[in-house]
Amino acid sequence: MKTLIIVVQLLSALGVIGLVLLQHGKGADMGAAFGSGASGSLFGATGSANFLSRTTAVLAAVFFVTTLTLTYLGSYKPQTSAGVLGGAAPVPTSAPAAASAGSAPASAPVASSAPGADVPK
Questions:
Q1: pTM for this one?
Q2: Which has more pLDDT, 26 or 42?
Q3: What span, in angstroms and rounded, lies between the C-alpha atoms of 120 and 108?
């Protein structure tokens, strides 16, 4: 899925670059107005400018949508990282040792899991 979106983004970017380079500047309109031969073309004097402008706008919109989609897919994190060790096993607490020694009753609350809670004082 991500590869397809990247391919569409690259093609739209290359299309926008090509269409921008094909378009005439503002000074080319005066030449077309005085009969420089553009009126006999396939799209007419202003038809090619409208076609190229609209196609450029559509390709630019496709480029922006694919960019936003790739940004969303790249920032999506399904689960939090557990650090360098990844899914390391949890450290056993001292509650079973205290219960086996008989110093604490079975109904006593379990010590908190805060760091340093199992350090003897």
A1: 0.50
A2: 26
A3: 18
